[in-house]
Design a protein that fits this description.
The structure is a homodimer.
Chain A lengths: L4 H9 L19 E3 L5 E11 L10 H19 L2 E11 L4 H17 L3 E9 L3 E11 L14 E5 L4 H10 L8 H12 L5 H6 L6 E4 L4 H12 L2 E5 L7 H4 L3 H10 L6 E5 L4 H11 L3 E8 L7 E3 L6 E2 L26
Parallel strand pairs in A: 3-4, 8-11
Antiparallel strand pairs in A: 2-5, 3-5, 6-9, 6-10, 7-9, 8-10, 11-12
Helix pairs in contact in A: 2-3, 4-5
C-alpha cells in the first residue's frame, strides 16, 4: 500500500482535537507553526538527528525508536533547565510501512504527551531511514542552565545510572565476557532504547545547579565541555560512581568503561555549591531519582577531568575519551574496547 | 583527513565574533540555544529536510546546496509573513570532505546573513547525505499569514516566474524536445539550485494578503491547500501565467506542465482583495519582483482549482496534480510527463 506525503502526516502525526497538548497558535499543517513563550520567558532550541546504523539498529522496536528520537532532544532541554513547549519532526523513510509508522508515532507522541510537548510541524521524505527532531522549550529570562557556570569548590553530581546503554550495546556487539544474563540484557536494552529525559530534574535545578550538561557522548567527555566552558578542572571519584544492579555484577574495568565513556545515557551531570548539598539530595528524593555526588570542581584551567579512586587519592591514568560519531565504528559492527583512546 | 564531530561544527559553522547575525542569548555550543522574540511577537517555526537523490543531485555545487537547504525553509517563513530569527542544522554526511563542507557552509551562511538569520544550533552525524533545517522567525501577534484566509472575490497572485526549476530538472532528465539551449539551462538550473526565498514579499504582504503559501509542490497543488483550508474555489487563467524568457521559448504544453505542476519554485501564491490591487503592484515594484494576477477566488467549496484560458472562458480539463515525494520517481531517474495524473 502506498500513501502520499500529506496523507502520512495527517494519518499518523496530526492529533484528533482534544488529544495531546495544544499550545501552538497555528499548528501542524500551515507553512509554519506559531508558538508564543509565556511572559518573562525565552525560547530554548535544540536539534538532534538519529540515523539508522549509527544511532539505532534496524531491529529496534519502532515505538522505542519514536520515544528515543524525542527523548534525546528533550534531554537537551533538561540540561538547560527548559520546559518543553513543542517540537518538529523531519522523517526520512525508505518506504511507507504502516505498522512501523503507527508504532513510531505511538512511542513519539506518548513521550510528547508525558512532557506536554506538542508536535508543531513536520516533513516526510523518501530516503534512507533518518529522524530529525528540533525541540523548543522555555526558560525564564536569565535562568538558563549553562555549561559555563561551574565554580571551584562546587560539587559534581550525576543523575541515575549511566553506563547501562553502553552495556547493552556491547552485549549486542558480543564483546562482553562473561556474557550478559537475559534479565540484565532486557533491562539495559530498555535503558539504551528508551532513555528517560531528565526534564523534571532540569526544572528543579534552575537556580540550584551552577552548570549542567546531558550525557550523550560519555560522562567524562561531556564533563570536559563543562570544564572547558567554565575554565575549571574536576576530580571524579571512581568509588563514588553509581552502579546499577546490572553494572554492579560486571568486571570493574567494564563498569568504568561503561560509566565513564559509555555514551547514550541522557543522564544529567551538574555542578552545585557544597552548601546546597542537602537541597540536591532533597530534589532527588522528591523526583524518585538517584542523584550521586561523584566529584569536585577545582581551580586548574579547562583540562580533562582527573580520575581518583576517592577524594584525596592519587590521580589514576585516564584513558576514557569522548564518544565521537566520526571516529567510532557504527553500532552494528564490533568495536574496539570503548575505553581505549584512538 | 578525519575530523571529529565537535571540530566540524567549530571549524565550519561557528562564526568568528562580530561576523554574521548575533541574536541568540545563548548560541551554538551549549545544549540549547536561547532566543527571544521581540515584544508583541510570536514565534513561527518550520522544518524541511533535503535528501540526496530526492531533493538534489549528487553533482550539485555544495555552496548552492547550502543555499537551497536554508532557502526552502526561509520560504516557509515568507509564506507566513514571518521575519527570520535563527535556524538549526542537522547534517548527515557520508564522510568528511573539507572542500565540500567549506562550500556548503559558505552558501548556507551567505544566505543566512542576507536574511539576518542566525545559525543557533546543529548536529552532525555520519550517514547518507541529508540536511535538516528548522527555521525560527517572528510574526506580530495575530498577524500571521495563513492558508485559511482566502475569501470569495479575492484576486489570486503569484510572484516571480514559477516553472523554471522544473524545466531545468526535465533538462537533466533528458525529456525535453527540443532540448534546452546552454544559456537557458544555466539560468534555469540556477533557479532550481539557488531559489530566492521571498522573505521581503512575505513581510510586505502582512495585512495585505488574505492567504498565502509557498510553491514547493506545484502551483495548482499548493493553491489547493489554500482552497481546502479557506473553503473556497479558484479559477486560474492560463493566459495570465507569467512566462520567464526561458519558458516563453518552450512548447505550450511544457510551459503549463512546468508552471502549474512543476514544483521546487519557492515563489509565493497569495490572495488579496481586488480593491488592494494597486497596493500589490506597488509592493512588487518596490521589491523589484514581478507579481502577476493569475486568477480569482470563488464561492464553491474547497475543490481543486479550475483552469481557464482567460477570465470568463470555459474551464479546461485539469490534469496537473501535486508533486508528492512518495509517488514521484527520484530526480535522478527519468520521469513520466510531469503533467500526467497517475
Amino acid at each position: 500500500m502506498s500513501l502520499g506525503e500529506f496523507d502520512l502526516i495527517a494519518k499518523y502525526f496530526v492529533r484528533p482535537a482534544g488529544q495531546g497538548p495544544r499550545r501552538a497558535v497555528v499548528g501542524n499543517g500551515d507553512d509554519c507553526a506559531v508558538l508564543a513563550p509565556a511572559a518573562g520567558m525565552q525560547l530554548a532550541v535544540s536539534t538532534d538527528a538519529l540515523v539508522e546504523g549509527r544511532h539505532f539498529l534496524s531491529t529496534v522496536d519502532p515505538a522505542r525508536l519514536g520515544h528515543k528520537a524525542l527523548a534525546v532532544n528533550l534531554s537537551d532541554l533538561a540540561a538547560c533547565g527548559a520546559r518543553p513547549l513543542g517540537f518538529t519532526l523531519a522523517l526520512t523513510l525508505p518506504r511507507v510501512d504502516e505498522a512501523w509508522l503507527a508504532g513510531f508515532a505511538r512511542g513519539l507522541l506518548d513521550l510528547a504527551d508525558e512532557h506536554d510537548c506538542e508536535l508543531v510541524g513536520g516533513d516526510t521524505t523518501a530516503g534512507p531511514l533518518a529522524i530529525g527532531v528540533t525541540v523548543l522549550g522555555e526558560v525564564p529570562v536569565g535562568g538558563v542552565l549553562l555549561r559555563s557556570g561551574a565554580r571551584p569548590g562546587d560539587e559534581l553530581w550525576v543523575s541515575g545510572h549511566p553506563g547501562e546503554a553502553r552495556l547493552a550495546l556491547e552485549a549486542f556487539r558480543g564483546t562482553l565476557h562473561p556474557s550478559l544474563p537475559a534479565e540484565a540484557f532486557d533491562a539495559t536494552r530498555l535503558a539504551m532504547e528508551c532513555p528517560q529525559p531528565r526534564v523534571a530534574l532540569g526544572l528543579g535545578l534552575r537556580g540550584l545547579a551552577t552548570a549542567a550538561i546531558d550525557v550523550s557522548d560519555g560522562l567524562l567527555g561531556d564533563l570536559g565541555h563543562i570544564l572547558r566552558r567554565s575554565g575549571v578542572s574536576a576530580d571524579v571519584f571512581a568509588d563514588a560512581l553509581p552502579l546499577s544492579r546490572w553494572l554492579a555484577a560486571r568486571p570493574r574495568h567494564e563498569q568504568l568503561d561503561c560509566i565513564l565513556a559509555g555514551g547514550d545515557d541522557y543522564e544529567l551531570v551538574f555542578t552545585a555549591p557544597p552548601e546546597r548539598h542537602a537541597e540536591v539530595l532533597a530534589l532527588g528524593a522528591q523526583l524518585g531519582l538517584v542523584l550521586s555526588r561523584i566529584g569536585s570542581v577545582g581551580h586548574r584551567d579547562g583540562s580533562a577531568p582527573r580520575l581518583r579512586l576517592w577524594e584525596g587519592a592519587a590521580p589514576l591514568a585516564n584513558r576514557w575519551v569522548s564518544f565521537d560519531h566520526f571516529r567510532q565504528p557504527s553500532p552494528s559492527t564490533p568495536a574496539p574496547n570503548p575505553g581505549e583512546a584512538p
